[in-house]
């Protein structure tokens, strides 16, 4: 029996040694590996970098987690990733192997780890990128990453590459990111939106993507033209015009309260929504109870005309939100959409817990007008 156990352990050790050798070989085969981390905008930034780089002569392979995990192969085909069970960071190694088999020159990966230790492992034992991205530092996943923005920043810094470069658009935490980068002999760049990106809904994401493309050697005009037609995440921020003229805003993929506020203010300014009546739709996940209080505070701040509650924690939300009309909706088909041009619905909370089905329902009853 002891001999059998010894043989098994030897086989496991041999496998791990071979796997480590193979991953190192794969990593070295790519000219650049770009690892995108941050609180918000990871998927969009990954896709923007992908689109900007495809105007070059490089073969690009990318992978995003987003609302639906998928990879974009060297032929620019989007393929959904089938998962059996919960998400696991070992998925990154499978993607690296696929990119290697397709002879990709550049690999762009969205970080899928939230736990600080797993972020460190994914970068230093698996991905081994030479270009790092930290989109921004915002208050989210506080149960894992820390209660303060400083703690969250240090957590995100676990994916900074050694002897490489790192890009961020977060001016408030640039010094912190730069300090951590210097420990790894990595140079940090602050990406700032300019006239070429200010017209976009999230100019910071475009600024980072353009800077990454410029660093690699793609000129501004080519990379920007590529980004103008980039492939959006299937359920990212989008606006629909409903049958009776009302507007539906899909903000379900924007989870942290800071981004929800920023998006709301930006869209109200851009589309003159301050003159319309706000209807707030909140769809919450059972395992995101800590976000309920954030949703309550946001609702009480913006003072909507009506509130629709879906998903989990609805009765808690109803008891704490100050609004004359609050309705709990248990079936998507019961969602009131007969609103005229003087009203708009802002959907927030989470894309999980039937969020995708809500947007599919909206798509059949409204026309896409902006993304």
In total, the number of domains comes to: 2
Given as residue ranges, the uncertain stretches (5+ residues, pLDDT < 50) are none
CATH architecture classification of the largest domain: 3-Layer(aba) Sandwich
Distance between the termini: 62 Å
Number of strands: 15
Write the element-wise H/E pattern from the N-terminal end onward: HEHEEEHEHEHHEHEHHEEHEHEHEEHE
The mean pLDDT is 91
User: What fraction, in percent, of the residue positions are helical?
Assistant: 40-55%
> Which strand order do you get reading across the main beta sheet?
4-3-2-5-1-6-7-8
Rg, Cα atoms, Å: 22 Å
Which structural traits does this protein have?
eight-stranded mixed β-sheet, 15 strands, alpha/beta, 2 domains, seven-stranded mixed β-sheet, UDP-N-acetylmuramoyl-L-alanine:D-glutamate ligase, 371 residues, Protein-Tyrosine Phosphatase, Chain A
What can you tell me about this protein's structure?
The chain is an alpha/beta fold and 371 residues long. The protein has two domains: 20-227, UDP-N-acetylmuramoyl-L-alanine:D-glutamate ligase (3-Layer(aba) Sandwich), CATH 3.40.1190; 238-370, Alpha-Beta Complex (Protein-Tyrosine Phosphatase, Chain A), CATH 3.90.190.20. It is built from 13 helices and 15 strands. The chain has helices at residues 2-29, 42-53, 91-101, 116-127, 142-145, 149-156, 174-183, 203-216, 220-227, 257-270, 290-302, 314-320, 355-363, and strands at 32-37, 60-64, 70-72, 78-80, 106-110, 131-134, 165-168, 187-190, 238-242, 247-250, 277-284, 306-311, 326-328, 343-349, 366-370. The strands form two sheets. The chain has an eight-stranded mixed sheet with strand order 4-3-2-5-1-6-7-8, sandwiched between helices. Strands 13-12-11-14-10-9-15 form a seven-stranded mixed sheet, sandwiched between helices. A hairpin with a 5-residue loop joins strand 3 (70-72) and strand 4.
